[in-house]
Design brief:
This protein is α/β, with parallel strands linked by helices and 213 residues long. The chain has 2 domains: 133 residues, Rossmann fold; 66 residues, Alpha-Beta Plaits (2-Layer Sandwich), CATH 3.30.70. It has 6 helices and 13 strands. The strands form 3 sheets. It has a 6-stranded parallel β-sheet with strand order 3-2-1-4-7-13, with helices on both faces. Helix 1 crosses helix 2. The longest helix is centred in the first third of the chain and has 14 residues. The protein is globular, with a radius of gyration of 17 Å. Bound molecules: ribulose-5-phosphate (5RP). The site of ribulose-5-phosphate has 17 residues, from helix 2 and helix 4.
Length: 213
Amino acid sequence: MSNSKLNASIEAIEYIKPKIDMGSIIGVGTGSTVNYFIEELAKIKHIFKGAVSSSEASTQLMESAGIEVFELNDVNEIIVYVDGADEVDTSHNLIKGGGGAHTREKIVASASNEFVCIVDESKLVKTLGNFPLPVEVMIKSRSYVAREIVKIGGSPELRTDFLTDQGNQILDIKDIKIENPLDLEQKINLIPGVLDNGLFANCKPNKVIVGKD
Ligand code: 5RP
């Protein structure tokens, strides 16, 4: 039981409550912090319509808690997206994807009116890059993408025994200097075979809630 993750989730519920009504769809991220958020969200399921999920894990959790889950293609508006992060810098750029769900997370975050990030204090950093940067790659492009990542100064490592919800693999980039998160996010995504990387600089949270113990 993590009090800080729970407290961040409770604060997020208080923040979104005045924004939602019976027609509202809420975007929901992935991870251990979000699992606490889903538990809290289930307590107010009678005051909103449903959710769009960023992963199979969160879908399962929400459905078993009685929250209706909609396909992104079937909704017109997502009022707010709530998700965790692996690192948050002082400008609110993020590294995400520790759970390998960052591609869908970035899509749902981008499709939402507002992005609220919930973290505990351990996620706050001055500069991103201590946490290995996840890159989702098509299996057939893995070696080529890895060589291109080495050229831009990173050390890619294949995440073993892991496939994303989309059936792709993850390369975790270690030792990469992240001086300009937006530049690096775009540079990596330009490598053919990359689905998306875990830098959220182009799609930063509008609000970061830091849960205290
Ligand atoms: C999953 C993510 C998560 O938000 C991130 O890994 C943080 O997870 P946790 O709340 O378990 O620390 O990006 O892809």
